[in-house]
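Entry type: protein chain
Record version: 2
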Amino acid sequence: MKTLYAYKCDAPSTPEGDWHHADIESAVKRKYGSYAGLARAWSSTHPQRPVSRYTLVKSAHQRQSELGEGVISWAIGVPAAQIWPSRYDANGRRIKLRRRGHGETGK
């Protein structure tokens, strides 16, 4: 009998080609110990653009945050387009998603 954990592990949780959030988290933890440690390191070297641990965690897991993706990319030394290929085009430019309520009204 499969446990709930086994079902969760079998289910694809990331778009095709994107790194799994656990892989991103382990790469961050190897260098900085935690997302909070990364946020402190980034904020001390880039005081004009501080970032919170929450932003980093959400970027790694689900929400698209250009700043969060850039910080994680900077931390582990891998281009963001390689970590999240579904969020970037073939030239490495970020794909902007339209937010709800903006654009066409669709009657």
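Comment: Residues 32 and 38 are 5 Å apart (CA to CA).
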